[in-house]
Amino acid sequence: MKIDLTETTASKINKALVEGRRAVGTPAIGMVLTLVIVTDEENAYDALKAANEASREHPSRTLVVIKRVSRSPRDRAKARLDAEVRVGTEAGTGETVVLRLYGEAIDHAQSVVLPLLLPDAPVVVWWAVNAPLDPAKDPLGALAQRRVTDAYACERPVQELSARAETYTPGDTDLAWTRITPWRSMLAAALDQGPCTVTSAEVEGEEFNPSCELLAMWLADRLNVPVSRKVSGGPGLTAVRLQSSGGPIVLDRPEASLATLSMPGQPDRSVALKRRETAELLAEELRRLDPDDIYAAALKFGVDRLSDGDGDGPAGGGSGDPAGTAKGEPAASADGTPAKSASSGKKAPAKKAAGK
């Protein structure tokens, strides 16, 4: 069922939601959270489609905020709100309200969204495009427990990671990080299969893909070893190579669905490592509402501390030693705790646990 409201208010939208639920025979509210999607008209369809698919696992009230640009000064000075209320099969397993803001209402989106939030339910804000530099200080972001961005949708995605690190607030996350969850799980499982000492690593993937940098920073932060970044033709991440005391460990994905895991003393094995759709990424992020400390540590490690793969300097264009490890500096222990500094006279090799 779909209800169109022109030049409306939040109270009229709430009334339409109640009427819609009664009309489709579901008067009770069975939703677990409020998902606020901030997007533009061009990307609204894809974002809403992903949210509807994710709602099968997380029934939610979805509020889509679309800020429409007014062409004339007169229209820009006039506040206007149009809404489209969807319930039943039109809204997945929850309910959806598409909000189109005009004029001065654009600068007060939080005032429109606040009366529509589910009472006593967590709030997640997802910027499908055009995320603010500091999501936690954005008026809409301030309403949420979790704030989801996507660096891949930015014009300069790798540089965006540095900005995210500077403004990180517990509760922030990025879909570029979510995309590498299968890679992190596979690498951690590979390192748990036998005792070994990792000495260096290389991450290979297409250019301008922030997931490659995040995976490299995660390895460098958890293992405290030099990690280089190598550019390939893609798609996405294509390979990770770990040099260890027992021999090379390689996770190679030349195509977008199947990868090959090579380990010393073991036959090569094929593993499923497909590129996931946005709906799967969003559903994963909605499973947890607590801060992601591992993401925070990887993000704050810094892109400029990665090697460019040729030994000529950092991948991020900054200065510093590859992976932030100076010559003679000790690596991390198995639990990810930094070992004692070189000045203490004791050294510890990098161990196998690549984070949990």
From TrEMBL:
Stretches for region Disordered: 306-356
Segments forming domain Glucose-6-phosphate dehydrogenase assembly protein OpcA N-terminal: 51-166
Top-level taxonomy: Bacteria, Bacillati, Actinomycetota, Actinomycetes, Kitasatosporales
PANTHER family assigned to the protein according to its UniProt record, in alphabetical order: OXPP CYCLE PROTEIN OPCA-RELATED
Biased composition regions of type Gly residues, renumbered to the chain: 312-321
Domain Glucose-6-phosphate dehydrogenase assembly protein OpcA C-terminal: 170-299
Lineage: superkingdom: Bacteria
InterPro entries: G6PDH_assembly_OpcA, OpcA_G6PD_C, OpcA_G6PD_N
Compositional bias of kind Low complexity: 338-347
Official protein name in the record: Glucose-6-phosphate dehydrogenase assembly protein OpcA
